[in-house]
Recover the amino acids of this structure.
């Protein structure tokens, strides 16, 4: 069964360092997303990506964040200078088309120390 | 703006009891989609069901059933004869047809604990 895969599963980084979270969405899906979940809280939308560009982003997704789809399979989230409050579980997701269910990766737990 | 409210933050039941998780939503979109996701202790988000706004037919899948009522903007989820393996956080989510990003707006989640 096709699935969304994320690497690494856990990343620990020092405040101020850059991190790149990686995702391989389901191959025939057209929409890609990043969400985050601070421990014990709700899942929050960060950014959506369609047709090789950002289609929407939330207030959380400031200039410190960027996304890329460098080739036909990978989808990355970069945080340029991490802050303590960036510590969270980051989920990648993809959907086949508008209105269809999103399939989520297993998440990357980012810990900023 | 879209909003999803799950008023029950935590529910505790004994195995074999039925339990209903409430979800109320707000949207200005005429076409929208509603979802339920399960987040077990291992942390992943597992898709359970999707409903279109134009299809109010209720659905049953094994021990799970969903009651979609447009008149009250609710999309409630019932687990019949709950089992310990049902223990998880359950999220209701909404996606509207008019948002460019096609993203999901999640409710705050309901933590369900099923005790043996």
């Amino acid at each position: 069964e096709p699935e969304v895969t994320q690497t690494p599963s856990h990343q620990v980084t020092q405040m101020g360092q850059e991190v790149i979270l990686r995702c391989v969405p389901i191959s025939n899906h057209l929409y890609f997303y990043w969400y985050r979940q601070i421990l014990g809280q709700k899942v929050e939308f960060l950014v959506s990506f369609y047709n090789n560009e950002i289609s929407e982003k939330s207030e959380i997704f400031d200039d410190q964040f960027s996304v890329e789809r460098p080739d036909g399979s990978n989808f990355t989230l970069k945080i340029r200078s991490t802050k303590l409050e960036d510590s969270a579980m980051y989920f990648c997701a993809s959907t086949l088309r508008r209105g269809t269910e999103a399939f989520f990766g297993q998440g990357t737990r980012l810990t900023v120390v | 703006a879209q909003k999803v409210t799950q008023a029950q933050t935590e529910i505790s039941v004994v195995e074999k009891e039925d339990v209903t998780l409430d979800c109320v939503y707000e949207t200005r979109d005429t076409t929208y989609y509603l979802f339920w996701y399960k987040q077990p202790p291992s942390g992943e988000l597992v898709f359970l069901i999707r409903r279109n706004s134009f299809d109010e037919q209720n659905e049953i899948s094994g021990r799970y059933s969903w009651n979609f009522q447009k008149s009250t903007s609710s999309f409630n989820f019932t687990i019949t004869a709950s089992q310990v393996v049902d223990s998880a956080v359950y999220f209701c989510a909404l996606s509207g047809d008019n948002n460019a990003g096609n993203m999901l707006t999640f409710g705050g989640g309901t933590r369900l604990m099923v005790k043996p």
